[in-house]
DNA sequence: GTCTATACTTTGATAGAC
DNA sequence: GTCTATCAAAGTATAGAC
């Protein structure tokens, strides 16, 4: 029986290389060399490069899930949770060396919509949209789906702009999200503001 | 002695294939077959695939420039020009078959920051940011750079979400941009609104 | 017996030659 | 325009080490 840690070690190495150089630019041999494992071992755990890339994307998806969950427990108000989500994503997106979010960049590298890698990445974004819509609905916004789409624009815009945006850009995005959430709730807050 | 139209024909073919299947996924042979020109002809016009890809990106950059210029002549008010820009980008971004904006996807495919293709794509986005900042400043906004960043989030978010967003998403983005521009001008309009 | 390391096969792509 | 050289990458198989 093979050591179960080997799979994780391989996936760790592959993830690091994929994040930095892109998926197609990294060869299996490079992963093997960097990992220090034999070629046989890798192909036992991952039948093909596609399988390895899919595992990588699933890990990235889990990473997003942790981010999302952490945002949800960070506050009781759904609006505050969404702001925290934007803040957390911004921190990653503008970090030096960040490169557009692994799911989006990998999706760009696998344009063929029939390819398993493409399908996994695409499914991720469907899920993300559903999750953000759920949280947007919980804010009690007048039009939760429109609110969700606005927040998705901010989130994906953040990833796309990346390090070029810098810390200031990340703060801008957070303030932006706050404004969006404030103005998306016309019944209560807007009246209070007008009464000032 | 060679027909000058040949270069354009090759670039037309390459652009179409790159847009649809991605740059790395398209081989030179495929371009040659699709174009109907000889291999010699192609390599006389473009010394290497990198050169061809750079020419493709420059054409995409010119395309953006036309979009930007058209938005600028569409209205006299800079704020209206920016809204028109968002509308025009949205129309492209959510069109069926669109795939994230050719500059961004190609940048994702060429992660190496030393690669000529990467540098050309990166330079494009620096230019775009400068242009949007210029237009944002012309609106007389209190903080034009912050306004520009907010609009860039919308623009890139639009490209990233693509056809999944659909026509409704494009309309959401336009309304979003309108709100952003409205609230970015505190001196005049905000006072008018409060006086209502 | 599973791990590492390496040699080999095949495929496909860029590029050049005629 | 076809044919060919070169190279890199994905897999497969094999040889050796703990």
Give your account of this protein's structure.
2 copies of one chain form a homodimer. By secondary structure, the first copy, chain A, is an all-alpha fold. Chain A has 2 domains: 1-47, Arc Repressor Mutant, subunit A (Orthogonal Bundle); 49-195, Tetracycline Repressor, domain 2, CATH 1.10.357.10. In chain A, 77% of the residues lie in helices and 0% in strands. Chain A contains 10 helices and no strands. The first copy, chain A, has helices at 5-21, 28-35, 39-45, 49-73, 78-93, 102-109, 116-138, 144-161, 166-183, 186-195. In chain A, helix 4 packs parallel to helix 7. The longest helix of chain A has 25 residues, at 49-73. The relative contact order of chain A is 0.11. The A-B interface holds A 20-22, 24-25, 99-100, 104-105, 107-112, 125-126, 129, 146, 149-150, 152-161, 164-165, 169, 172-173, 175-176, 179-180, 183 and B 20-22, 24-25, 99-100, 104-105, 107-112, 125-126, 129, 146, 149-150, 152-161, 164-165, 169, 172-173, 175-176, 179-180, 183.
